[in-house]
Description:
The protein is mainly alpha-helical.
Amino acid sequence: MRRxxxxxxxxxxxxxxxxxxxxxxVVAEPEAAAGEGRELFVARCSVCHSIDYIxxxxxxxxxxxxxxxxxxxxxxxxxxxxxxxxxxxxDYLQRNYGPTRAQRTTASSSMSNTxxxxxxxxxxxxxxx
Length: 129
Ligand code: HEC
C-alpha cells in the first residue's frame, strides 16, 4: 500500500531539518500519562505500535477490558510481558486510561468532539480509517 502522505512527511521532515530544528521525535511521540508504571508501559506497549495508537483505539474500559487487551497483546501478538508486569500494566492502564479519565478529558476539552465516543479524539489527532 503506497501512501502519498509519506512523500509529504518526508518533505516536511527535510524542511524541519533545513530550519535547524532537528527534533522529529518531538512531533512523533506523544506523552504517556505520568504516574507509577509509566516506564513499564512505554517499554512494553510501544514496541509494536505507538502509545498514541493505544489512546486512540482504547475503549476506555474497565479493568476487565484492559485485562482483555493486555492478554490479547500477549497471546495473539506474543508481546513479551510477564504475569507480574501484566498486572502492573493493567493497574496503570486502568488508572490512567480508564473511564474516569475519558470523562474528565471530554468534560474539560474545549475542542468540539461531541459526536464521537468519549475520549477517542482526546488527543485532537485525526484518525486514520
Ligand atoms: C508484540 C507486539 C505488540 C505489543 C508489545 C503490544 N501490542 Fe497492542 N497491538 C498489536 C497489534 C498487531 C495490534 C493491532 C490489532 C488489530 O488491528 O487487530 C494492537 C492493537 C492494540 C489496541 C487496539 C485494540 C485492539 O485490541 O486491537 C490496543 C488498545 C493495544 N494494542 C494496547 C496495547 C497495550 C496496552 C500494550 C502493552 C501491554 C500493547 N498493546 C503491546 C501488537 C502489540
